[in-house]
Amino acid sequence: MVDELRRISTETGLPMATISIAWVLQKPIVSTLVGSRNATELMSNVEAAKVTLPDDIIKRIDDISLPVLNKLGNSADYYENREHSRIY
Question: Domain span at residue 50?
Answer without folding.
Answer: 2-84
